[in-house]
Amino acid sequence: MALIxxxxxxxxxxxxxxxxxxxxxxxxxxxxxxxxxxLAARMLVQMGLDTKTTAPFGLFDNACGAGAVAAALxxxxxxxxxxxxxxxxxxxxxxxxxxxxxxxxxxxxxxTEAKVVDAQTNGLASGNFxxxxxNIGFHVVPDSKAALDxxxxxxxxxxxxxxxxxxxxxxxxxxxxxxxKAFPFPAxxxxxxxxxxxxxxxxxxxxxxxxLVDRGLEEVQVEVFEYQSRVDSADHFxxxxxxxxxxxTNSSWSEELRKEHGKEEVYGLIKDFLEKRYDGKxxxxxxxxxVATGRVPSD
Length: 299
Known about the structure:
Blueprint: H1 7-15, H2 17-20, H3 24-47, E1 58-62, H4 68-76, H5 79-82, E2 86-91, H6 94-107, E3 112-116, E4 129-135, H7 144-153, E5 155-166, H8 171-181, H9 205-214, E6 218-231, H10 234-252, H11 255-260, H12 263-277, E7 283-295
Protein name: S-adenosyl-L-methionine-dependent methyltransferase
InterPro entries: Methyltransf_11, SAM-dependent_MTases_sf
GO biological process, one term: methylation
């Protein structure tokens, strides 16, 4: 499966995130709380998993990241239902799964387990889950067609699929781009794409809807969800987005330019720019995502 420029850099980065990013655990958990968590909650409600849920379920969270879906379930579904249910968190990154295991223990997520899973060939039993989620994932899986096929394969008849993808370029990118333009040296920046796989158009409402209908899903619903997250300070922005800043420089800058202007210099210049831009005050970043759900036909 062909990838767009920078895709391999991103895949390698997340697979070895413990070696590639500073304070990566804190950054990922903070991102869950502010960005991916609210989106996961919106998806789960659209899937019919909320405070009104009474039937136990088996859910596979595909490309789980730091556990946004599991955390949202813990806050949405009644404890007595969770005690009779089962949640599997899967991700291709071993360090990230290690973080999720820590959160399962420290935050007391009941009947939740985590293991390394490749979304493209997950190795799970067919027809085993009532619900499968992929929160901000399909558009960055190298072979997203295979990942969608695998997702549908493991759903039980009548099972519910739910996923989210970015509808517009994430808000952090415009801040970094503006900062780069103010650098005292030429700092090129490839605009981060909405997807890093060439299959499909994951940010397009009509393409997503038609793709699910063509796969035979029923009750297909694709909504645009727009929201904001608070940035506490310029330092908070740099800390929380350092992983993506590194991806941008690794994808857009020559090796010579990266050697000449190291990470700490880049972080410092972005921080100084944002301090001035927002007068040292907090500000909000806007996000726009698609929330898609559908039901596999019953036997």
